[in-house]
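Trying the structure run again after the queue cleared.
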Amino acid sequence: MRVSRPVVRLAITGIALGFSAMIISVAIVKGFKQEIQDKVLGFSSHIHISKYDANQSFESSPMEGGAELASSLAAINGVTHVQAFAIKAGIVRKGSDIEGIVAKGVDAGYDWEFFRKYLIEGKLPAYRTGQRSVDILVSSALARKLNLTSGDSLITYFIQQPPRARKFKIAGVYETGLEEFDAKFIFCDLAQIRKLNDWNDYTVGGMEIAISDFSRLDDIAESVYAASGSELDVHTVQEMYPQIFDWLGLQDINAIVIIILMVIVAGINMIAALLVLILERVGTIGSLKAMGGRDRAIRSIFLRIAGMLIGRGLLWGNLIGIGVCLLQNHFHWIKLDQDSYYIAYVPVRLLITDLLWMNLGTLAVCTLMMVVPTLLIARIPPVKALRFR
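Done. Tokens:
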């Protein structure tokens, strides 16, 4: 017992630390993916409809019959919201400072819930049907470059023939951390884009569609395509930003590698501990064999002991891992460089199903690995084993 006790404690500690690292890693990967995905969806929604002849420039081609199309799309199973938009490239100026921007026009039906979360100054614009508002929402990146704040006026020049200018008022400032979007977009009234493009009150530049289940994205996109006209093009958010979603997909590989390594380490720790337990109890094993005990029955005893030790390690691993995740989720005490990671802190997302599968999987794999050292019991002769008593 003098030898086995510290070895067993070390094995339990190794399992606890390894499993807690497994929980934290999976929670971080899930949280990071969900956070970035939500930010991208906040800007462009799940499904995007535009004219087939739309070019690669930041200029919307006109779509007629937006209201009728929105009604038919809203009836599709899984669609939760449909909103119209139009974009137009421009240049903003304050004093001698000039920046290129993309004005995204939205109307009264736009869902501001995403930007309400990332509003850092001022208020969200409130657009009304039949009116043309001068209020805009700008990013903190643009505000810093031009030394802007909410309530300031901003002159915007739009690239067209002949060029036109509009004087807007900054209602609020947002910051999502997605530099690719923050540095580019300002939000204005869709009626302003219509006026600049000489469109009527029913013309839009495109439609954005939100859905209830991201896993059904492709299926719902097919239904949207079938309900749209032949002159319209349908793109999912994954098709619009493949580099971001490919990068997020690579994070799953990292989590899988960490899980495999941690399970292997935990298994090796337990193999070492079980071997020490067996070698320390060679005399006991010999006595059991001399009394008629079968190898399978004796092995099952040591497997049950190993299972109890693994369970103890998993219990402590769960307490440590879940505790760290809950603390991080509440206090955000581990920070990140937002310019590099698109978020200012390490996000975590714990799912009961993930915890259940990790616990069951680790317990099953480690228990199976314990079968190997118990095979040593069959090689212990009773006569020689009794000499160790």
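Residues 4-44 form the longest helix (41 residues). Worth checking whether this holds up in the mutant runs.
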